[in-house]
Amino acid sequence: MSEDRSWQGAWKVRLHERVRERGYASLTAFAEARPTASLVALAEELGKDDLNAVQVFSGLVAEAERSHQLTRLARGQLVRELFEGLPNGWPAVLDDTNRFEVAHALARWISYTPETHKERARQILVALLATPPPPGWRPLGPDDELLHALLPDEEV
Q1: Dihedral angle of Cα 110, 114, 119, 122, to the nearest 10 degrees
Q2: How many CB atoms lie within 10 A of CB 57?
Q3: SS (H, E, C) the chain
Q4: Residue 88 neighbours by CB under 8 Å, 6+ apart
Q5: How far apart are the C-alpha atoms of 127 and 83, rounded to whole Å?
Q6: Domain boundaries, the chain
Q7: Is the pLDDT of residue 127 over 60?
Q8: Alpha-carbon distances of 67 from 31, 57, 64, 73, rounded to whole Å
Q9: How far from chain centre, in Å, is Cα 129?
């Protein structure tokens, strides 16, 4: 895209219109149908020339806040970051290179984690580096058993 038009006009309206055009009642439903797609991929599917990843995430946060699903959103974003950052799943050995790749994926996740969950996300980063999951672990959605153990749903 040579010219960023994503912030022009009523982008929130445009975002939700594109979701409805694809047969989804909400942005969350659209994103959950693609649990391993990056935010960039979701934005490109909805409007390569006039929507961006930040807008998609902003819309997802707004819906998660309204439905009291921020923890699920955080788990879902962790899936997206791990899927992109660790394409072969969790490494069998955490040597310097693999430790960097893991830390990078987890740091990207923390940057997208809502403020209410940031401290818990940092604790999860430390826990995963200290006690790694099985080699090859690659969660495919927010309902992954290990993800639920690390970041259980909050009481509403």
Answers
A1: -10
A2: 19
A3: CCCCCCCCCCHHHHHHHHHHHCCCCCHHHHHHCCCCCCHHHHHHHHHCCCCCHHHHHHHHHHHHHHHCCHHHHHHHHHHHHHHHHCCCCCCCCCCHHHHHHHHHHHHHHHHHCCHHHHHHHHHHHHHHHHCCCCCCCCCCCCCCHHHHHHCCCCCC
A4: 136, 138
A5: 19
A6: 11-67, 70-150
A7: yes
A8: 15, 15, 5, 11
A9: 19
Q: 42-89, pLDDT tens digit by residue?
A: 999 999 889 999 999 999 999 999 999 999 999 999 999 999 999 999
Q: How far apart (Å, rounded) are the C-alpha atoms in residues 138 and 134? A: 9
Q: Which residue has the tokens 């693609």?
A: 34
Please determine, for residue 154, whether its predicted confidence score (pLDDT) is greater than 80: no
Average pLDDT over residues 3-32: 91
- Note the pLDDT of residue 3: 57
State how far Cα 16 lies from the chain centre: 19
Stated pTM of the model: 0.90
Pull the structure tokens for residue 124. 């999860």
Q: What percent of the chain is modeled with pLDDT above 70? A: 97
Q: Which tokens belong to 50?
A: 């006039």
